[in-house]
Design brief:
heterodimer, A: alpha/beta, Rossmann fold, Alpha-Beta Plaits, six-stranded mixed β-sheet, 20 helices, 24 strands, B: mainly alpha, abc type-2 transporter like fold, 2 domains, four-stranded mixed β-sheet, 15 helices, 4 strands, elongated
């Protein structure tokens, strides 16, 4: 019972003919925190729902504490706590009303209830807000309330479906340490996540991709396989992007990513050390061994990342060189009534630069972003693209802009071809030029097979390619990307950034919003937005250096982010 | 039991805090009532007609006054037939009466029959019927009142027809519209509101969280049905009071029968809402389905506005599976006629048969699973 608390045997679940969970077997031991890790669409949510008995598998069997998930669903509900991915609580009830409801549903009697509430409210520090409607809570507070409701009757198994989504890094850390606390009370926790950095902290990791389990075991057992093959190229002369491109095109390199001004790479064999001269990193460049991370292993299992060339960009024209700033914001302010969503935000972006707006949800980065691409009019201040004020010349300015909205918002019911034709029409391409452009895109992206499939049914990688193709069809000088790769698998993300990096090499200027730390590393400069203000501006390395202390000599982007936000809070309080 | 109580309490909190529930349960019924009470009228009142006066005796003057005095007609008198015809063709008049030159002569001659020509605009058959009947009735009344001896009447008129309308003597269409509108309102609350709130729980993920607790499916269903039953019944009471007090609709049955019949209908409507929400898991689809399967049939096929007998046979056949048809019939009987059990009981049986079919389907379809 200790080691096979949850038993999953040859489980398969289909949805409309698609296999969501494919012949999965796993055993989960008691009293541990298990990370269920994988990109969107990997089958994490389906597996969790199968464990709760909310879904019935087509094939196979699941038991929780010896109880069958199909035949003994009712008994299972008594011993589990479940927090679905969508906020599963009533937004029009207060915190207290939600707690009482769940206490009633789970049969926690009077006196015990009072103690439980006190303990949970203290634990989640929600005490000051008990009469606030749940709908008016921040993302982090909502998740804490969800956790509290799931814990009301002391479950043996706690199932958390992506509790970190929509939550800023600080709340994510708090949530994590709360769950750590729970392990002391002999609760088994299944924590599902698309953030690979969270996986490293779990006792055991079940790594899923496309409905299959790729790895089930301790995280460091997995990273051990590539230990010693991970390097960091520092002090690069010239462009790190150029180095990355060269590196990725070498057959002995499995994977490479940009980390601020450095390049991180994984070699396929331990013995070989890449020659710095070969990768054109400059005379002063240094090659250091770096600790292996979970994401590296994931890419390794998946067979390595893509190459460094983008066939999409090859045919794009070189942008005209200019010294003037391509994108400029001067004292940009947006107010909704008394609420300042963005206040006095200024920055200027050079041609061929990747500029990131980083910040927690609701901090004002989307507001700023929308003003920059002319989707929203600033209350005061100016936003300009290619020297054109978006307020007065928005039509002309917009013709230079390519825009890719969050979550690849294509027309799901239109086919690939129809989407391409629609967007080329919207961007004013006509006749022969339009035909040539579309044919070119079909060729470079291998869309032939999918021309008549609806965009909504495309595999994730193709969806992303299509969205990008539609955004850059008119060869824009400026590209706006809104949370472009959150939740996608690392291979798809690398592929995406290969295209972007190559475009930037051609002189395209990119502005990107993200709350994703890995994505922030790709930026040349970052503006950190918090509570409607730009609290820090600099290269990723500069921001990390800002928070360097004796305790944290080599802070990660996330650590930099957290400590900058904390010091902003302290200033606010003082 | 404790869990059910908690669910019901939660639902009431939500109803009170959600403006759209209050909207559908109380504001919309009021709007509908006022619309049917004041706005929609199927009666033909003050229909414009023309009178061509080719004779000019005191008797003709008196007849014209009779036409002018009836509240059903609005008479315009001309001497020239062409003037009236022109307006009739232009659609300004719905009908015309021609009083021929020999009218008085024939009227006083006991051996002759006085003739009137009546022409009605047949493009609106309903109104044309009204025109004919009203003119005929005015004519008969005039004959009786004018003190002309019976001998002067033609054989036809001697056997005079005296139409009397039972149950709704003034033929006020608002009376049967208002009583029938309670069926519409209860369909709205039972089917539309219920399917909306359940699909909202699916949309927001609250249903999923709920299903992972020890709550059983019966409790979840009752936790929805009971609050909306209470809401529907209170809305019915308000509508009844307003119909009676504000619009002067008579109520000839007993309130207990009304409450009992309404409760039986509401349960059926709620079940329909529940069934929709087991299929439609988002609010948009749910509202579409509720409108098409609940609201529209209740409006069009229930006999509430359009008479079922004048529908084509296959449409009439469809009306038998519309619960609102039976309920409208009960309501109109209760309001306008009284506790006529020979009408009410068969109709209640009709509702109950449909209700049990829904119940069987629901118990088959609803499980504590996500799909």
């Amino acid at each position: 019972m200790q080691n096979n608390f949850v038993q999953i045997q040859d489980v398969t679940k289909l949805f409309n003919g698609e296999t969501a969970v494919d012949n999965v077997s796993a055993v989960i031991g008691k009293g541990r925190i298990i990370g269920l890790v994988g990109p969107d669409g990997a089958g994490k949510t389906t597996l969790i729902r199968l464990i709760t008995g909310l879904l019935v598998p087509e094939k196979g069997k699941i038991t929780v504490a010896g109880l069958d998930s199909v035949k003994q669903t009712q008994q299972i509900t008594d011993i589990i706590g479940y927090m679905p991915q969508k906020f599963g609580l009533y937004e029009d009830l207060t915190i207290m009303e939600n707690l009482h409801l769940y206490a009633d549903l789970r049969g926690v009697p009077g006196r015990e209830r009072k103690e439980t509430f006190e303990r949970l409210l203290g634990f989640t520090s929600l005490n000051p807000f008990i009469n606030r409607l749940a709908g008016n809570l921040s993302g982090g507070m909502k998740q804490k309330l969800g956790l509290a409701c799931a814990l009301i009757s002391k479950p043996h198994l706690l199932l958390l479906d992506e509790p970190g989504v929509g939550v800023d890094p600080i709340s994510r850390r708090e949530l994590w340490s709360m769950v750590q606390e729970l392990l002391k009370e002999d609760i088994t926790v299944l924590w599902s996540t698309a953030y690979l950095d969270e996986a490293e902290k779990c006792d055991t990791v079940i790594l899923m991709n496309e409905g299959k389990i790729l790895y089930n075991g301790e995280p460091h057992e997995l990273t051990k396989k590539i230990e010693g093959r991970v390097y960091q190229v520092k002090d690069i002369e010239g462009s790190a992007r150029q180095v990355l491109k060269t590196v990725l095109n070498r057959p002995d390199v499995i994977d490479g990513v940009i980390q601020g001004a450095s390049v991180r790479l994984i070699m396929d064999k331990e013995s070989k050390i890449p020659d710095l001269y070969d990768i054109k990193a400059g005379d002063n460049a240094k090659l250091l061994r770096a600790p292996a991370r979970f994401e590296d292993s994931f890419v390794d299992i998946l067979g390595g990342g893509p190459g460094g060339d983008s066939n999409l960009v090859e045919t794009m024209p070189e942008m005209k060189k200019t010294d003037r700033p391509v994108i400029e914001a001067v004292n940009l302010t947006k107010k909704y009534g008394n609420f300042t969503a963005a206040g006095n935000i200024s920055f200027s972006i050079k041609a061929g630069e990747i500029f990131g707006l980083l910040g927690p949800n609701g901090a004002g980065k989307s507001t700023t972003f929308k003003m920059m691409c002319g989707l929203s009019t600033p209350t005061s201040g100016t936003a300009s693209v290619m020297g054109l004020d978006l307020k007065t010349a928005s039509g002309k300015a917009r013709s230079y802009i390519g825009y890719m909205a969050q979550k690849f918002s294509l027309y799901q019911n239109l086919s690939t071809m129809q989407n391409l034709q629609f967007f080329s029409g919207v961007y004013g391409l006509r006749g022969k030029l339009k035909k040539e452009k579309i044919n070119n895109i079909i060729e470079v992206f291998n869309f032939e097979k999918y021309l008549n499939s609806n965009a909504g049914e495309l595999p994730l990688g193709y969806k992303q390619r299509l969205a990008l193709a539609c955004a850059v069809m008119h060869d824009p000088a400026v590209l706006f990307l809104d949370e472009p790769t959150s939740g996608v698998d690392p291979i798809t993300r690398r592929e995406f950034w290969t295209h972007i990096n190559n475009m930037v090499e051609k002189g395209v200027t990119v502005m990107v919003t993200t709350h994703f730390m890995e994505e922030a590393e790709y930026c040349d400069r970052i503006s950190l937005i918090y509570r409607g203000k730009a609290i820090a501006l600099g290269t990723p390395d500069e921001l990390k250096n800002l928070v360097k202390t004796d305790e944290i000599p080599g802070p990660t982007m996330e650590e930099a982010f957290i400590s900058l936000i904390k010091s902003s809070d302290e200033q606010e309080a003082a | 039991m404790r869990r059910l109580k908690a669910l019901i309490k939660k639902e009431f909190h939500q109803i009170v805090r959600d403006p759209s529930s209050v909207m559908i349960a109380f504001i919309l019924p009021l709007i509908l009532l006022f619309l049917f009470g004041y706005g929609v009228s199927l009666d033909a009142n003050r229909i414009d007609i023309g009178i061509v006066m080719q004779d000019n005796s005191p008797q003709v003057q008196s007849l014209i006054r009779a036409f002018e005095n009836t509240s059903f007609l609005n008479a315009q008198v001309e001497r020239d037939r062409r003037e009236i015809e022109k307006q009739l063709v232009a659609g300004k008049l719905r009908g015309m009466v021609v009083i021929p030159t020999d009218f008085t002569r024939r009227l006083i001659n006991p051996d002759d029959t006085a003739k009137l020509q009546v022409i009605a605009d047949g493009s609106e058959p309903n109104t044309a019927n009204f025109v004919q009947n009203y003119i005929r009735q005015t004519w008969v009344n005039w004959l009786l009142q004018s003190g002309l001896s019976e001998a002067m009447l033609t054989v036809d008129e001697r056997v005079s027809i005296q139409p009397r309308f039972w149950f709704n003597p003034e033929l006020e269409s608002s009376h049967f519209l208002l009583s029938g509108s309670i069926a519409i309102i209860m369909t709205l609350i039972g089917t539309l509101l219920t399917s909306l709130v359940i699909s909202r729980e699916w949309e927001r993920g609250t249903m999923e969280a709920m299903m992972a607790t020890p709550v059983n499916i019966i409790e979840i269903i009752l936790g929805k049905l009971i609050p909306y039953f209470v809401l529907g019944m209170s809305s019915m009471v308000i509508c009844t009071i307003i119909s009676i007090v504000v619009f002067g609709v008579p109520f000839r049955g007993s309130f207990i029968t009304l409450a009992a019949v309404s409760a039986i209908f509401l349960i059926t409507a709620l079940q329909q809402g529940l069934l929709i929400s087991t299929v439609a898991k988002n609010q948009f689809l749910a509202s579409q389905m509720a409108f098409i399967s609940g609201f529209l049939p209740a409006f069009i096929l229930s006999g509430f506005v359009f008479e079922i007998k004048s529908m084509p046979a296959f449409v009439q056949a469809i009306t038998y599976i519309v619960p609102a048809k039976y309920f409208v019939s009960c309501l109109q009987t209760l309001f306008l006629a009284g506790d006529i059990y020979s009408v009410i009981i068969p109709n209640v049986i009709g509702i109950m048969i449909l209700g049990s079919v829904l119940f069987i389907v629901i118990t088959r379809k609803t499980r504590k699973r996500l799909i």
